Structure formats: C-alpha cells, structure tokens
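input
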Amino acid sequence: QVQLVESGGGLVQPGGSLRLSCAASGSIFNGNIMGWYRQAPGKQREMVARITSGGGRTWYADSVKGRFTISSSAKNTIYLQMDSLKPEDTAVYYCNYYDSYENDYWGQGSQVTVSS
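output
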C-alpha cells in the first residue's frame, strides 16, 4: 500500500501562483512515476505533469508547459509549482503514484480555483 497526502490547494487570482505538495509513504518501489492529474467539472481527468523517481525525466501537458513545474525530493515528495494561473486551470488536482508492479494509487484531491 502507498499513502499519498496532498496539500497546497486554494483560491488564487488569474496570473497568480500556487504550489501543490504530495508526500508518499508506505511500500514505495524504485523506478516509480509520480504525477499530477486534474479534473474540472464535467470533464475527464487529464494528466498535468509526471516525474520519474529521482527526477530524471518529466512530462507535461501542452496546456501547462512553461507555466507549471514538477519536482521531487529525496523524501518521496513531489511538488507542482503553478505560475501564471488561468481560470481554465480551475480543477481538483490529484496526486498519482504508479510503479512497475502496476500499483496505482491516488491522493485525496486538492481544489485549485483561479478566479478574480
């Protein structure tokens, strides 16, 4: 089992910044991929950014490239720095853990609202 605890969501004005954190604990295997997904009302969940354990490789959705940055720490924590936020970034953001054993876990979700 892997537990994912998210923090850092909230309300921000357009053009502002927020940082999300996700701390993973439990049976964590090397070579995992952690990431952030989001789901807006009435839409499907979509990948925002992913990072390999150790931070060697990252992926971003086209809609957030140049504005969001994913990073990781040695303590199994990942971060999503979100800059130049837009109203269309409003969604519930979910942390995800996936490994080569096909273990797939989700965090509880963090609401991010971008509004003036």
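quick obs: The chain is about 0% helix and 55% strand.
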